[in-house]
């Protein structure tokens, strides 16, 4: 497996994708051993195994369509790398609803929670993610040298975007103000620091910050990626076009951005509830 993961790294896959693919293959290996009472090798995998594993994920593990598709993307990649041509089940159709974004009320509640705590780092992390839409891994990788902040304008250079693509994202006044307060005249090193001094704040560190204050604000969606969705939804509601939003998010395909124009689960619920109104 190590050689395959190294190959993915050479192909420009993000570390998050590589980690996820590796984890999914380990789970498939565990299932394969139990189901076939033999060790997993590329040569032993059959199309029947793949169909049965998909059925297992759907009906026993009750995994969502997106998760199942990720699993089989990993398995397909591993098989292709090992020169195994096997028919892989078709991707599971994903329901076309918009990702969950925070409402304005929830955004205000989240900001109140972190401001009450007088936590400069927490305030900087949440404000930055909400106003830039960066992915978790992109925010973690940022260095102060990637920031350009003036009185009236600013921007952040994302050097480690998905597929190792670079892009620039403007920093609005709120983000600049909070970042300057947090950085406190630091001029080099990681933007976000852990509690251990000059060490870079990890993915889990940022995740814990978001979870902590989302919980205090009584918000059920407690993941940094929700702030990315919120950034996109706010731009859409402000009247920005999809092309602009796609560039800011680092989307290579406009169809990926278009998902934000679709109704959310809450929108669908409200639509059905209106039928019972007098």
UniProtKB/TrEMBL annotation:
Tyr recombinase domain: residues covered: 97-273
Pfam families with a match to the protein in the record: Phage_int_SAM_1, Phage_integrase
PROSITE patterns on file: CB, TYR_RECOMBINASE
Signal sequence interval, chain numbering: none
Entry GO MF terms: DNA binding
GO biological process, alphabetically ordered: cell division; chromosome segregation; DNA integration; DNA recombination
Matching Gene3D superfamilies: 1.10.150.130, Intergrase catalytic core
Subcellular localization(s) per the UniProt record: Cytoplasm
Domain Core-binding (CB): 1-83
Keywords: Cell cycle, Cell division, Chromosome partition, Cytoplasm, DNA integration, DNA recombination, DNA-binding
InterPro entries listed in its UniProt record: CB, DNA_brk_join_enz, Integrase-like_cat_sf, Integrase_catalytic, Integrase_recombinase_N, Integrase_SAM-like_N, Tyrosine_recombinase_XerCD
The keyword Phosphoprotein is annotated on this UniProt entry: no
Gene Ontology terms: cellular component: cytoplasm
Biological role stated in the UniProt entry: Site-specific tyrosine recombinase, which acts by catalyzing the cutting and rejoining of the recombining DNA molecules.
Family: Belongs to the 'phage' integrase family.
Name listed for the protein in its UniProt record: Putative Tyrosine recombinase XerD
Organism: Candidatus Desulfosporosinus infrequens
């Amino acid at each position: 497996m190590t050689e395959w993961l190294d190959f993915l790294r050479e192909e420009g896959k993000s570390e998050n994708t590589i980690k996820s693919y590796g984890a999914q293959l380990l789970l498939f290996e565990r299932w394969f051993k139990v189901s076939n009472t033999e060790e997993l090798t590329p040569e032993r995998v059959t199309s029947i195994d793949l169909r049965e594993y998909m059925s297992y994920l759907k009906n026993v593990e009750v995994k969502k369509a997106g998760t199942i598709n990720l699993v089989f993307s990993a398995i397909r990649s591993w098989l292709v790398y090992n020169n195994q041509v096997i028919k892989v089940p078709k991707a599971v159709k994903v329901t076309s609803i918009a990702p969950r974004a925070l409402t304005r009320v929830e955004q205000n509640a989240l900001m109140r929670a972190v401001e009450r705590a007088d936590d400069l780092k927490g305030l900087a992390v949440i404000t930055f993610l909400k106003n830039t839409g960066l992915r978790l891994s992109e925010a973690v990788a940022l260095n102060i040298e990637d920031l350009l902040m003036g009185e009236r304008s600013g921007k952040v250079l994302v050097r480690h975007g998905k597929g190792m693509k670079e892009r620039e994202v403007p920093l609005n006044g709120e983000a600049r103000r909070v970042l300057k307060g947090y950085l406190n005249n630091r001029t080099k090193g990681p933007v976000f620091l852990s509690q251990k001094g000059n060490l870079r704040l990890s993915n889990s560190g940022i995740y814990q910050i978001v979870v902590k204050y989302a919980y205090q604000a009584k918000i059920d969606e407690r993941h940094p990626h929700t702030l990315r969705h919120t950034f996109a939804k706010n731009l859409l509601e402000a009247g920005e076009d999809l092309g602009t939003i796609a560039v800011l998010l680092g989307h290579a395909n406009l169809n990926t951005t278009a998902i934000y124009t679709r109704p959310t689960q809450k929108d669908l619920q409200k639509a059905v509830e209106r039928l019972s109104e007098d």
